[in-house]
Amino acid sequence: MPPDDLHSAAAPARATAHGRGEDTRLRILRTALEVFAADGYEGASTRTLAQRAGVNLPAIQYYFGSKEGLYHAVIDQIAERMEARVAPVTAEIRAALAGGAASRAQVLSLLCRMLEEFVALVTDRAEPDWESRSLFFARAEIEAAEALHPLHQRVTRRIVEPCAALVGKLIDRPPEAEETLLKTIALIGQVTVFCNRKAHHVLGWQAAESRQVKAVQALISDHTRAIFADPPAKEG
What is the per-residue DSSP string for the chain? Predict the structure, then answer.
């Protein structure tokens, strides 16, 4: 067989092997999210992770280097999903603010949209691996995992900073001003309270389904619009 034909024949085989490798990597990641969520970082053994994923122990080292590397990879995957979810509205915010001609109504609408996307991210059971992600974060916060620091930075960059830029525009203050950041954190905090299982228990929700998610989104938008509503004109 001529060399060119050998090269052509080898290409599909390499593509197939790469595809199988990526499938294995994703299966390990998905399993790791479930195991870390259930057992925490310290409680999760690489043997359990490998058995649950249907791979041998060296596979974890091959793809991720170590249990710590796998833990970081799980967090990276969560961050990438979050960034992909908010990317369209983030781009709109940047374009609107860069132009400098956005109206107050447009700025407020963009702020509500960003908060609504955040609501879906943290409450919507239809999101991939929602249950495991929710429990994973709860455990990681309790364990004060240093590995969460890069995720917090990415959340700040992709959600907090765009929201602060919009809030600053609405109150005529710089995005980095303390007053701006206080209002921004308070707005985001009204979303995160619905991550709490106690809130679901009080509401009688097993988990937030589509109707409940839309109800929370509408509530957050109503609150946000009320906070930044123009004061009534004074009579006489």
Answer: --HHHHHHHHHHHHHHHHHHHHHHHHHHHHHHHHHHHHHHHHH--HHHHHHHHT--HHHHHHHHSSHHHHHHHHHHHHHHHHHHHHHHHHHHHHHHHHHS---HHHHHHHHHHHHHHHHHHHH-TTSTTHHHHHHHHHHHHHTT-TTHHHHHHHHIIIIIHHHHHHHHHHHTS-TTSHHHHHHHHHHHHHHHGGG-HHHHHHHT-SS--HHHHHHHHHHHHHHHHHHTPPPPPPP-
State pLDDT tens for residues 196-236. Answer: 777 777 888 776 678 888 999 999 999 999 999 876 555 54
Domain boundaries, the chain: 5-227
* pLDDT tens for each residue of 5-31: 655 555 454 445 546 778 999 999 999
- Classified by CATH at the fold level, domain 5-227 comes out as Tetracycline Repressor; domain 2 (1.10.357)
Instruction: Provide the whole-model pTM.
Output: 0.79
